[in-house]
């Protein structure tokens, strides 16, 4: 039987681990003690379509127990790394006792570039990128809910195509559809476009729905997206359609007057009025954000193409200023933020 380890099991990691366990796969979770305590009675998984799955008994693994243990039985076939981009470097060290010569490492991060850390540390292993195109919320301890459409999409390469094709079939289920692609880079760029609202939400310091109801915040997001679209077009990256509306039209819709936006963008506004982005959570808790792998990836790619992305550059500066400050984030108004990202100096 093939074995799975989910390393850094937060909401996404626990959802994956719960699905694998419910399907009967040999699965172990590596997570914080507080999360392990929440899952002591198993895990219930539900989704917006009404599907329900239960994993009554979960298996956990403490990496501290493995540091001085070279038993190859600790090696796994598939190691799912579900930490944030900012935690990948440390995770690459911590997973060492679990990585055997044939272990496939699957990187489930937002943004671009963090997988390179794994590839450099494990050059002999197959390292693949995974896009998780759905959100997971905790209803209560031990109950996770997939609240949106979208699949778990796994990268395939010529070397890994057969094994990933078999894996995809084994873990594909109605509560977590699984697909595979050889065009993961373009897919990640498409998702990155959708994630550009994360930094704006963090700086606004208000719920996402409230943010989207204000045109000037939407104009900031539109400006960030336009720069991304210039970079991808110049790089000849054809963005796949990951929402009902093709990505190239989203900045236009965001720029519409409020009354038109409210009529057209029903899906964008069909979210819980209290929801905030993960970057807001990081910033509010004094943690380092993923800005370098989101907006920073656009700026980096632009420089390689001799392009200038002032809106994204200014957003990065604003986020890093708050990261490096001991003062609490007070929030930036829509008018002020729009003026700041338009300032090229």
Please describe what this structure looks like:
The structure is a single chain. The protein has 345 residues and is α/β, with parallel strands linked by helices. It has helices spanning 11-22, 33-38, 88-94, 115-121, 161-171, 184-195, 197-204, 208-212, 215-234, 250-254, 258-264, 266-269, 278-284, 295-304, 310-323, 334-341; strands at residues 3-7, 26-30, 43-47, 52-55, 78-81, 104-107, 126-132, 136-140, 143-146, 152-155, 178-181. The strands form two sheets. It has a seven-stranded mixed sheet, sandwiched between helices. It has a four-stranded mixed sheet with strand order 4-3-9-8, with helices on one face. Helix 9 packs parallel to helix 14 (295-304). The radius of gyration is 20 Å and the shape is globular. 40% of the residues are buried. The model has no long low-confidence stretch (mean pLDDT 91).
Comma- or semicolon-separated keywords:
16 helices; alpha/beta; seven-stranded mixed sheet; 345 residues
Q: What is the element string, with H for helices and E for strands?
A: EHEHEEEHEHEEEEHEHHHHHHHHHHH
Kindly, what is the distance between the CA atoms of the first and last residues, rounded to a whole number of angstroms?
59 Å
Discrete helix count: 16
Write out the strand line-up for the largest beta sheet, numbering strands in chain order: 2-1-5-6-7-10-11
Class from secondary-structure proportions: alpha/beta
Helix content: 40-55%
Tell me, what's the shape? globular
What does the largest sheet look like?
7 strands, mixed
- Secondary structure tally: strands: 11
**How big is the Rg?**
20 Å
Uncertain stretches of 5 or more adjacent residues: none
Q: Which band does the percent of strand residues land in?
A: 5-15%
Mean pLDDT: 91
């Amino acid at each position: 039987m093939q074995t799975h380890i989910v390393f850094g099991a937060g909401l996404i990691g626990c959802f994956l681990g719960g699905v694998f366990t419910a399907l009967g796969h040999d699965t172990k979770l590596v997570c914080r003690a507080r999360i392990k305590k929440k899952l002591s009675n198993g895990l219930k998984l539900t989704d917006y379509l009404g599907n329900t799955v239960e994993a009554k008994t979960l298996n956990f693994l403490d990496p501290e127990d493995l540091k001085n243990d070279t038993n190859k039985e600790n090696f796994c076939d598939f190691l799912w790394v579900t930490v944030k981009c900012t935690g990948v470097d440390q995770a690459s060290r911590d997973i060492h006792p679990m990585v055997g010569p044939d272990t496939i490492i699957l990187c489930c991060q937002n943004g671009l570039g963090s997988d390179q850390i794994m590839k450099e540390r494990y050059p002999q292993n197959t390292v693949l990128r995974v896009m998780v195109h759905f959100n997971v919320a905790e209803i209560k301890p031990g109950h996770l809910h997939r609240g949106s459409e979208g699949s778990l999409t796994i990268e395939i390469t010529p070397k890994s195509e057969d094994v990933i094709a078999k894996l995809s079939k084994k873990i594909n289920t109605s509560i977590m559809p699984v697909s595979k692609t050889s065009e993961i880079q373009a897919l990640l760029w498409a998702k990155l476009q959708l994630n550009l609202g994360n930094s704006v939400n963090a700086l606004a310091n208000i719920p996402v729905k409230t943010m989207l109801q204000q045109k000037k915040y939407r104009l900031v997001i539109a400006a960030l997206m336009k720069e991304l679209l210039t970079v991808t077009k110049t790089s000849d990256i054809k963005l796949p359609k990951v929402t009902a509306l093709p990505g190239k039209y989203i900045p236009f819709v965001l720029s519409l007057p409020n009354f038109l936006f409210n009529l057209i963008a029903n899906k964008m506004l069909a979210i819980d009025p209290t929801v905030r982005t993960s970057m807001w959570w990081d910033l509010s808790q004094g943690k380092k954000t993923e800005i370098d792998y989101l907006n920073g990836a656009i700026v980096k790619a632009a420089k390689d193409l001799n392009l200038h992305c002032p809106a994204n550059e200014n957003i990065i500066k604003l986020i890093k200023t708050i990261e490096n400050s001991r003062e609490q984030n007070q929030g930036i108004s829509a008018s002020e933020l729009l003026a700041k990202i338009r300032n090229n100096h």
